[in-house]
Amino acid sequence: MKLCTIRILIILVLMGISVFRISIAQDNFTSDPSEFGKDATSPIERRILIDAITAGVLPRASFDFDIRTFTYGGGQVALNVGLLKRLNIGLSYGAGRLLTEDTPLWNPNMEFLVKYRIFTENYAYPSLAIGYSSQGSGTWDKVNKRYAQKSKGIYLAATKSFLVYRNIVAFTGGINVSMEDRDRDKDPSAYFGAFTQVNDQLYFIVEYDLAINDNERYNVYGFGRGFLNIGLEWILTQSVSVEFDLRDLLQNRDVKSFDREVRLFYIEHF
Question: Residue 10 half-sphere exposure, CB side, CA atoms within 13 Å?
């Protein structure tokens, strides 16, 4: 059996276990949207899994810094602001080879982020948000005018949370159309993922991006397997958390191994 087939079977088994856990504890799920995306001490919703954007938003009059590394010594920072109750805006910037002895490969532009939540989660319905993100993942390719993994572009995201055996389990799904289409692969794409509490300080994260918009021409960027990422977030304080991510476990790009990423979140009110 091929290695790719084995990995896909593992994914399906893990998803089946998650569904089974929820199905046997349906009476315990919460209808309170205040439970979505929060740890036991923090009032902050989760706005992103690893790359998958959720329907969560920052509270009004708050901001966060999202600092992350990526392959080949790259680094990226994003600033998001809770401008209104339902509206977040942000900017991001990064560079390849930033954490090496080589000359950094600076991104050509500062990228723009915006999210507006249309509906807030309740007993029957998920949270729903629409937005735009021009920030992709990895190093900027100046020849093909794109990031190693395309930005989400225009997206619609839905998130629904449950309380299962006193632990939060939240599912996110979304559809998106990236503006990085110089390769003429303009197909819309989709993604889904989930995160759950391990304990009151640790969260486990898993996501899968179908990457339908990145599987036709430049196979160095996508072999058609999609992007599978997992991560573990450690909540240090109400304002600070550290995350360790393993990216591209299906090796959808022309690489010898999956990518390792470290991420720092800092949240504050003003």
Answer: 11
Provide the domain count of the chain. Answer: 1
Q: What is the pLDDT of residues 197-220, one digit of tens each?
A: 898 899 999 999 999 998 766 567
Residues sharing a CB contact under 8 Å with residue 190, sequence separation 6 or more, in sequence order: 173, 174, 175, 176, 209, 210, 212
226 contacts 207 by C-beta, under 8 angstroms:
no
Instruction: Please give the sequence-ordered ranges of beta strands (E in DSSP) within 22-86, or none if there are none.
Output: 62-70, 74-82
CATH number of the domain bearing residue 235: 2.40.160.40
Q: Which residues of 35-72 are buried (b: 16+ CB within 10 A; e: fewer)?
A: bbbbbeeeebbbbbbbbbbbbbbbeeebbbebebbbbb
Q: Of 192, 228, 171, whose CA–CA distance to 10 is shortest?
A: 228
Residue range of the domain that includes 14: 3-269
Q: Tokens for 168, please give them.
A: 């939060």
Q: How confident is the model at residue 25 (pLDDT cuts 50, 70, 90)?
A: very low
CA atoms within 13 A on the CB side of 251: 9
